Amino acid sequence: MKQIPQIREVNGIQTLYVDDEPFFILGGEIHNSASSSLSYMEREVWPNLRDLNMNTVVAPLYWEQIEAEEGNYDFEVMDGLIRQARENGMHLVFLWFGLWKNAESMYVPGWMKKNTEVYFRAEKPDGEKLNTISPLCEAAVEKDAAAFAAIMKHIRETDGEESTVIMMQVENEIGLMGTDRDYSVQGQKAFGEQIPIELAEYFGKNGTWTEVFGEDAGEAFMAYYFASAVEKITEAGRKEYPLPCYANAWLKQYPWYPGSYPSGGPVKEMHKIWKKTAPSLFTLAPDIYVPYVAEILDRYGYEGNPLFVPEVRKDAMTSSYCMYAFTAKNAIGYSPFGIEELALPPEAVDKPPMEVMIALNIDPTAFDITGSKEYLKKTYGLINQMKPLLLKYRGTDQMKSYVKKSETDFGTFLRFSDYDLLVGYSPKQSAKPLSAGTVIELEKNRFLLVGMNSQFTFMPKTGEPLTVDYLKIEEGTIENGEWKPGRVMNGDEKMLLRFGDMPSCMMVELYKY
Ligand code: DGJ
Hints:
The chain is α/β, with parallel strands linked by helices. The chain has two domains: 330 residues, Alpha-Beta Barrel (TIM Barrel), CATH 3.20.20; 114 residues, Sandwich (Chondroitinase Ac, Chain A, domain 3). It is built from 14 helices and 24 strands. A nine-stranded parallel beta sheet has the order 12-14-4-5-6-9-10-11-13. A hairpin with a 5-residue loop joins strand 7 and strand 8. The structure holds (2R,3S,4R,5S)-2-(hydroxymethyl)piperidine-3,4,5-triol. (2R,3S,4R,5S)-2-(hydroxymethyl)piperidine-3,4,5-triol binds next to loops.
């Protein structure tokens, strides 16, 4: 029987399976409004995605479009997207732009937007109403859950056999901006109550939100109510069709106080509350536009929270972080934002206006695409061809990966069973990938090196009175996990073992004398 896309554990690592096979999402998220028009997709998006070695498009579904009239669901555009994805040989991760998108209720249908009595807004301490329906509004959450369930039922009926759609994001960058919590009448009342019993048991402490969470009470309170709402919506959908579901976070970042980033969203500090309250989500994913991407990958990919990166910067460095995400952090997937632009000449790309970047707290260099396309394409190609090797060596001592983490990070020292390896990093250059890569010890003296902007010096084990030399250095390619050698580089080339900008691979065989 046909298996639905699902998360399974392989050697202790949570792995996405599609059509009963492990699947790495080599993805890209399209711009917010792209998937509202099938003809726009046909013209401006699909052709641009053909030459990137991608296998998945991360695309929005809009509640206002699907349920423009209360209770009548219209799946024409969604069906069209699925059809187009199939024609283009791609899978889809759908983003459910339901009650919340970037901390606002911008995609809820007009009939709900206008009915502010029933679908009440969250409020700031001074009574100002936000453009965000409160997660305490059960009536709104029920409507969203009903719509999401209808969508999932329709996907099961129309795509259950083909599995074009492989995953769902529930809402988008949820939380409240401009306030730590909802100060509406309903919000005030709930905030004065004791924390829910399940949280009291989990944290081993009873009392009001303030008594239990101190200065973080407002954010913890919102995290609980947002996670409860997402759980209701996800559960309703998964009852119809249990695709893997996740929620994404606008990161906690400068200036650091809740409300300067969406308060109550699934930022790392709120994961315990989110995980306890929304168990139907398989992971909580980071959207990464900050310059310190590797740190975020390290923080958000941990046991019990497999790394999926639905949005990330798309400058040249992204290919380095992509390599690190799959080889060091066992990522389920990786997906730069605004991917349809990568195919365009950099000067043809309209950068989001500075006002938008400031409002969304985005580092503007994240959108500079100079050189990006070729680096990302090559990296996606390598990850795809390395899949059998990654599945075999992930999590073992035979595979070690690295990425340059700061300007003063000059390299790393990797220990293998019979040899040690000094990896030197190149200085950071604009519009080039950062030093990154992975080394696999295939045999005690045979190593596969994959990466960019790195130099390698193999060394004897500490204290061994021997010298290391090469038996063979080969350039080559990887095809479905198999090494295909090209030139043998045993002449001048062996004086300096290095990779340049373009992600590449080589095989090295060593001996000691
Ligand atoms: C984060 C949001 O989730 C996306 O929808 C998009 O707005 C990007 N930021 C930046 O443009």
